[in-house]
Amino acid sequence: MSEKKPAYCNNLDNTYHKIWELLEIGLSNRDDPFHLPAFVCNNQNSTSGRIVVLRGVNKENKNLWFHSDIRSKKVEILKKNPNASFLFYNKSEKVQLRVSVNIIINYQNKFTNQSWKKTAHMSRQCYLGEISPGTETLEPTSGLTDNIDNSKYTIEESEVGYKNFSIIEGKIKSIEWLYLASKGHRRAIFNFNKDNIDKKWLIP
Question: What is the pLDDT of residue 172?
């Protein structure tokens, strides 16, 4: 018996709508698989990937973003090559998204200022270390003092972390969607060119 696919899978416009619906759910629900996409960027001779927390989705402006320490290695890579990608997978929805983006590094601007004000006390901990992420160390350590590690700091004391806070914003160039079925996969690509969206079916 063949698997019954969701009705949207055979219509490009409905598929496009479903993609943004899944991204919005991933943003708002921390338990959703889309909340933690893989982010991949490319150095001259290597590829670097990691899991990030999805912090923003904007359908109108066609962008996604996450927070980062400005001192991190990926920021160095992205300054040299702003081409990157997000990879999302939701097992229950049977959907994979490959999102190609051009990166904008937001640092100490209106965007970061507004986001920092909304950043929770505990989340600010990530930006309070005196040593840059990725620095070699002789002993296993979080890189934080005991007080910071144990959240023994006030919201006012955490303000110093703003100097390390950045937003990695991805302007979407294309979204490749794949529906994985036991029989009859579906695949499509959505290319963005200014105000135009080129929608095409692909062979899975």
Answer: 98
pLDDT of 200 strictly over 80: yes
Nearest to 129 by CA among 81, 69, 88, 60: 69
Out of 2.30.110.10, 3.40.50.1370, 3.40.50.10680, 3.30.300.130, the CATH code matching 7-127+143-202 is 2.30.110.10
Give the global pTM: 0.93
What percentage of the chain has pLDDT greater than the value 70? 99
* CB 53 within 8 Å of CB 35: yes
Cα–Cα distance measured from residue 115 to residue 3, given in angstroms and rounded to the nearest whole number: 43
- Would you list the domain boundaries of the chain? 7-127+143-202
User: Residue 124's closest CA among 144, 97, 110?
Assistant: 144
Neighbours of 127 (CB within 10 A): 22
